[in-house]
Amino acid sequence: MIFNTFSYFMLFLFPAAVVFRLVPQTWKAWVIITSGAAFYVFFSITAVGGFLGAVCLGLFLWEAVFSRLYHPASRWCWIGVIQALIILVVFKYWNFFCALVVSPDSPWRWTDAFLPLGISFFTFEFIHYAVDRRAGKTEAGTFSEYLAFILFFPTMVAGPIKRFQDFLPTLRSPSTKWAADFERGTTRILCGLVKKFAIADVLTAFTMHLNSTDISAAQRWLLLLWLLAYALQIYLDFSSYSDIAIGSARLFGLSVKENFDWPYLCTNITEFWRHWHISLTKWLTDYIFIPLGGSRVSQPRVYANLLMTMFISGLWHGAGLNFIVWGLWHGSGLVIHRAWSRSHLNPSPSQAKKFASWLLTMTFVCIGWAFFVMDLPTVMLFFRRLFIQ
Amino acid sequence: MTTIIQWCEYLGGVTDTPPRGFPMHITWLLFGFWWTLLTALIAMFCGQSSKFIYIDF
Hints:
The complex is a heterodimer.
Chain A (H helix, E strand, L loop, with lengths): L5 H17 L2 H22 L3 H6 L1 H10 L9 H26 L17 H16 L8 H9 L1 H4 L7 H9 L5 H23 L3 H4 L4 H6 L2 H33 L16 H7 L2 H12 L9 H19 L3 H23 L7 H23 L2 H13 L1
Chain B lengths: L1 H10 L15 H19 L12
């Protein structure tokens, strides 16, 4: 969807990147704004949300206008955070909470519910800006610079989640190395597309069987194979998306931070989360974990903070109980690793121990993916078939 | 392992600095071949109409 369409490259990326390079500096932000708005309307109408989805472009305009009220120590920043959360909760979680609190057939359900394009990601950027403006961690930028930040279409839909203080310098003085940016950016995009089309999509032949009918009939080794295929697929799928986003930004001459750094080579779960979806992990650390007290409180509080952060991470990934369990699974892993490493600090483990740690981490992560890909009754059936019968 | 990672990252467009031993004198030829290979793979496998799966956005 979107990044693997011809329209994305021909109608938006290449024209916008070339125009951005050619216009004077004062117009560059407006090139991003115009192309981002056109991108949002086009893909809302053709891919998600339809006409109502396109109307959600107004959310960006409102946010950009409202953000002019933000100042260090201002209460308007909190109002900005609250309104971003309301937008996220109403669109993404309304029906989930209705079903959970009232009943699945509740009259309060929003029957024609839709998700505005990129809502999970742009709301996080709204919250980041409000919080950092309040703390004085970022300058305000101009109206057009902030609008360009939130409407920069390569990262708008699924990240990497940017920071305004990182984006502003690159917007104000983008790279002028046309040839190098074109060569590196295009290589990155092509590799991303190959990862997506030639590997991740092909793995669907295995992962499509992760449903209750096929699980009931499959042999044990097949279940294991399907889960491993999913672990590989989800990594290649999302990292390829980040590759295309970062490569696209490079064509503009703008730099966006990395989102993945070989997470499946990590030898513990804490390290895994520093290498998997890095921009999200940093967001959760800065705006959830640290405000809760971070690691500067008593150990039981630190553990509770880790669990709460990963609970929110799970809920953010999807409005479903299985995502919450996935989040808590990883939260528990982080807690156990923290408790264990405090008493078993070994600065130079042997190769055998490193391998064992890697194997344990991969097993833990793969079990977690079962909760991510299947609903709870199906995942229970999966584990029963895998471990018991 | 570090060498393999450095090669993968350079060939994948992640890093700007080529790894040690990279044949700089035939870079244009190597990347011509590499882009052709990648484009051929994309052409072979595209059109499977799969959305990105990580999140519902």
